[in-house]
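re: ur question from yesterday

yeah so i grabbed the chain u mentioned. its 422 aa long if i counted rite. heres the sequnce exactly as i have it in my notes:
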Amino acid sequence: MDILKIQGPVQLNGEITVSGSKNASLPIMAATLLAPGVSVIKNVPDLSDIRVLCELMISVGAKINKPAKGVYEIDATNIDNPFGDYEIVRKMRASICILGPLLARCGKVEVSMPGGCSIGDRPVDIHIRGLKELGAIIDIRSGNIAASAGDGLKGKDIFLGGPFGSTVLGTDNIMMAATLAKGTTVIESAACEPEVSDLANCLNAMGAKISGIGSPRLVIEGVKALRPVEYSVLPDRIEAGTFMIAAAITKGKLKIKNCQCDYLMAAIDALHNIGVKVEHCGDDIIVSSNGKFKPVFLTTQPYPGFPTDLQAQFMALLALADGNSVITEKIFPDRFMHVAELNRMAANLRKEGPSVIIAGVDKLMAAPVMASDLRASAALVLAAMAAEGETIINRVYHIDRGYEKIEEKLNACGANIVRCQV
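ran it thru and got these structure tokens back, copy pasting raw so excuse formatting
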């Protein structure tokens, strides 16, 4: 098992290029299962989650080739085993994104209930409800979701709202299935995240007819067939946001390249309010800080609100603010396992229901800590770069799920991170 040894404090300076979006790559790659033939997906990050999805797609009959960095050739000509095995699916929650396309393509599918990060309850009931609205017959048996299309999927007006807002993967699944349904499907309360829009744009490039992209109301006109596609995935806004916070917490200055600023407005606004300088330069952002941070109140919300996937990283930053801050989690109310680990590093955090009260401290101190999930891992890396001494982060396989060679990118800008095996 790998660990990261991080010596701090350091000051980051230089340039970092943002990789392709993990959360867009996964459903876009799954969407290629809808079209017989060879699709080419570009700008895909080299992550363990991507490798898990490739394993899963190969198991259902796809052939996958990687001719160049970030490029995947996916041959979905013969999809003859529409079954998502538990031993693969348990490794990653996003495995559920094969449910919709396989049901539409094969007329039946069976997928194990998904695993993934420990960030609280994330049921798939909305996925199931949406597919039932399209006419699917669904049975839950032995921990698997078994679905069949019966006489074929049929377009329907579907409301996809849930207790914590819209569902990204649920929207993805229903949208993919609806592309081959008979008639028109309207998804109300659709997720508006840029990654959902990227999937919709890819599906349209495959011959789908989707309108309302980027809005909470998607209209999908069913077509008889889709064609293979060549498509480039958008940059990862969460990785970009993490590096923005890295510049701030280390009192450094980073030029973050290949960063679509329009998708980061909430995070940029929060940084401005804290006292961090953010300059726009085309698709690049320059972030600099003197290390003096004002306290703020933040609440995570569905896009375009403040993203839950940056909550842990901002908590590490606000641990050093001059005063008391509050972060309220409205998407995953139990997503606070990093609180105890940050407190081990001399932060002063107190959880109160779905909120954390953050009393700023003068400095963080190194300590052995354990990563509980993907974004918590990133928060610990950020805190470690600002802390005094050597921090050891255990269970860093979580960070490899969502950040491509993060220690190499940060070390090139002045970090002191060593990956070791224990």
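noticed a couple things. The chain has two domains: 2-19+235-421, 22-223. also The domain at 2-19+235-421 is CATH 3.65.10.10 (UDP-n-acetylglucosamine1-carboxyvinyl-transferase; Chain).
anyway ttyl
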